[in-house]
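To whoever is covering the structure queue this week,

Two jobs came back overnight. Logging them here so there's a record in the thread.

Job A:
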Amino acid sequence: MKKILIVFISVLLFFLFSCDNNSTSSESKTPANNVVIPYGFIGAVGEGYGKTDVESEEIAKKDALRKIAEQIYVEIKSDSTLKENLTQIIENKQVKEKAETKLENIVNTTTDIEIVGVDFTLIDKRLINGQYYTKVLGLLDKETALFAYRTYFAIKIGQSLLEGKMIYSAQKIVSEYEKLISENKDKLPANMVSELISTVSKIKKSWNDIIALYNDLENKEIKTVENALKLLEAIDKLNSQCIDFPQDKIEPLKEKAKTFVKDIKITLNGPKSVSVGQRIDIFVELSPKINGNYTFNVKAKNAEFPEFITIKDGKGTLSGIVKDKDILVEVSLGNLIFERYSPGTSEGAGVSSQKVGEIIRISSQGVAPQRNAAIEEALTMAVKKAIGIVFSQDVNLLLSIPVDKDLVNALFGVLKYEIVNEKYENGTYNIVINVSFNRDEFKDLVTKIISQKPVGYAVIVVNNDQYGYIEPIFENKLLESSINLVSKEYSRKLAQYSDPNILSKLAILSAAKYVINIKVNYGEAYSSEYKIWSMRLFLNVQIINTLTGQIVKSENFEDVAAGATKEAALSKVLNSEKFSDFINKLIEELKKPYSSAEKSNVVRKVNLKFYFEKSTYILIMKDYLSEKFGKVELIEKEENFGILSLNTNLTNEEIISIVTSFRNLNIKVLKASPNQIEFKIN
């Protein structure tokens, strides 16, 4: 009947075309423009110009095909038949939602399906301005067209589900449409048939593999814990390969294993706090210990970890990158054995670190307009963190201190890094790196670099110099004696610290061999009778080895002079031979061979004998020294002296420095022996 209609329309259009040719009108418009498409057909008029009548006709037919294809897409988008079929075929609710989304995407992005079965009728053909013009009508059976598209899209959804490991739902679609493809090959383009048959074959093969695995598990006999673990491992494998496999078929398999694994526990141990960008290790352990290799599933939130971990003889290690705050890592087997790792705190880039054997891992961040500059800034920050960890066990101690360029460039070579986050916004690179390094190699290189610095290379730190005389005088005297000094930038940063141990750690970034720690105290008095100023200067100078933290020299200076002004009186003190001799002693110490050896860890018993005028002084000293050394015992007390006993690994020089630094009392050293030091308290 439809063929008869096409013939009738063709005759009618030919008649109208003939009448139009007898007309004198030069317009291209003909009554054929008003052709009514018969019911049950999709049709379109196509037009084309060409150098020959054949060329113009081909162009007109392509134009008609394009318009027909557009109409088919409109029909498919408004057609609910395929969507309803998929809803009935697919059982899993989540897969249904994904399939609907995929259908919409496939329909919107598919534009190149071949159309067959279109009948063309010539409406008009003429020569216009030296070019051939042709107009044709293309008609296509609507039912055939929609069937072809529905079938194509259904199988394409099946292919998409297969790629997404939803094999069960994919094979359900294939089961519905495979027979239709076979029965209607003549209605479909040859290339479409070939593509669909290939896709169907892939889906069926994948499903057969899943069924074979399932049947094997169903027939397994479970007699031991090891059998049960291997069964759960295989169940996880099946679920990972086919994520929509019916769980009502899986549960009976799990029941076979439950009795054997009910007492097995899994523990996850990792850092208590982590930083964004940090690589961390999580140590996994089964209890009781079970021999053999077992593959557990791993799921991670805000972190990048492998999807699986092999636990060998009850132990395994997971290594991954922290990508954001609030990370969560879950390790499980068959959802019967599982545990989660979630650090108590999560912090910004570079705050936390982890030591694994001799390897230390930290993260660091760099921000700069150029990418290389951002990486270099992140590495420089990593060097500061690394020195903080290795020399002071504090990753953040040195972050505000400038770093020696030679030192940082040399240390780049022992740092292994990976970029874990990189953003470019508003003309700025923000780069987060994870850095790992061998602790001993790093420490040895820092030691080597500092040891190779010039003789006596030092940073001066002056505290309480209210008149500002001491620092420039020391600088001039040291430079005159060929002692190189670190930039004042470091001195200013370190001036807020007084603890020798902290000062030595902070100074490492300057690559100085020594810290010259100077504590200043002034005393002044004015005589109105003689109109003269009396100025007292007291200095405590410590020379601290930056690598060992050891006080290698501790000297006190005290002198008084008078003058018409404060400045004149102080000038006499600072230009005196006594002061010159004092500085020369310090210079002699700085010029001695440098030792980077760690101070002794041998703890010895030392007695401190104090001579005093007031007996309360010994109790004051006991309280003060207890804060510095921990346990301090009063072993003897007489009317004019007392003896305190303590255990320490510090040298006599370091002990003397601590004792004489007590500001509330005027304390002088009388003599020192290996096991006893004597002081006088005025």
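Job B:
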Amino acid sequence: MNRKIETYLKASGMMLLAFCFTIATGLAQELKSLSGANSPQDDQNPVWIGDNVLLFSRAFHPNNLGGVTDPGDIWMTKKNEKGEWEEAIHRADLSTDGYDFALGLEDALTLLVYHKGSGRNGMYQYSKFGTDWNFLRQVNFPGLEDLQGQLLGRVAQGGKLIFLSGKRTDSYGNEDIFVSEKTGVIDWSIPVNLGSAINTKGQEMSPYYNPEKQLLYFSSNMHEGAEGKDIFIAKKTGDEWKDWSKPIKWEQISSRGSEVSVTFISDTEVVWSSTTNSDGFADLMTFETIVPLETPQEFSPAPPAILPPKQSVSEAMPVANTSDSISPIFPRTAIGKAEIQLSQLDNTKPTVEEKEPPIAWLVIDAKNNKRLDFTILLKEGEIEKPVNKIDSMYLSNLQSKGVDEVKVMSEGFFPKYLKISDIKSNDKTVVLMTKVEPGSVLLLDNVNFKRGTSELEGAETVASLTELAHFLVENPSVKIRINGHTDSVGDPGLNKGLSLERAGSVRDFLVEKGVGFENLRISGWGGTRPIASNATEAGRSKNRRVELEVIQ
């Protein structure tokens, strides 16, 4: 197939790409980016969930919950009546400040999402209510934590299968493709490697499975004909998950860059991600007009199956002073992210266990995502100790010393408290700070009340409000409004009264600890200002809250 790039445009900082593919029949196939959906950041893993809605992951965007270092939040674009893709919307209700991607619908009202970071690590169900998605629960997925690297995947066969890519001890190379079967309402089987017909010593990623045609679409940089990463197609040939044909490159959507993810809008329309710019960031692509999709009709048998090596590529890194070398995979292209393979793996020796890295902190203003200067105090019971060398803190040391919490402080901001379980050892620990300025709102997420009353409950509540009181006493010029909220269950009048009484209880506690009464105002809003759907208990729990609003 002969290809030539017809157009390359850059407008308003956004990459708008158009390609012209000429095939043997002389028919031109023009490609376009989903201009409303794409950004200068990394846009990948498109997932079509019906109702004209496409979900995808966007990395490093300033509006991500983790800011410009966030490795992936979930965004959404819709296809309007004119067939145009609308500007993408950030779905904070489906995202964390860590790595997030959607796998697709388990059923008409249940979406599966993978999270890594911010206290959520694993696979989670979200329930649809109107246009909102409400957190439902975590699913049981044994073996998921054993998959490392950049996880990508997709739900298939009406929510009965999940195909995933990641690195594991039985991988043939870097990322391999695995499958898991649903065994209960929230239960899944241990992922099974798809074998050597699919997986190579390189990278196989982002699987999409069509159960009706028994076709597996995936990205590979090592199968025959790959330039960078390309989409390959294989057909299931037997009853076992290792029974596959020899994969064939999907020439119709191949480019000089790297194609990583694919999703089908219909039998005749497809969207995929492609990197054709020098920074290696991906855009979402489709055909300018609907054209026949030219997928292989005949498949040849795969070579005889082989067992995976004793060590995966990631474990078999060579030590110094060996004759092993690193060489590029298919160096015919310099576009996209660098990809390498290891030579002479049989002669390599595993490296010694890596030393624990120090904690990497990213403390930013939650409003504008700007980095902040900060200090840290360690809390051991009632004792607070300053940290002199923030860049030399190790999680294991904190745990061994019995540190309960870490207090992060920045001048002009409310202090933030992190439990040891919230601190990451192999990734950045992102801390979002709320500035003390009129209009700022701070959620008191550790303040609890006895059910149906305004009576404060729990040691955590007392500790949280005591810390707040200390801050307000030290900053007597700050005036705040304490806003009480409930869910919408029950009588609206009673709910409003209860929310006001709870705000009053918080004020009374703060005054008792020395905060000036004149600096505290209270309001009760009942269930009139929800932040989540009241259709689920998870949503109602979020709505039952107390917030501080800075008024001066």
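Note for Job B: Confidence is low (pLDDT under 50) at residues 1-28, 311-352.

Please reply-all if you pick these up so we don't duplicate work.
Q.
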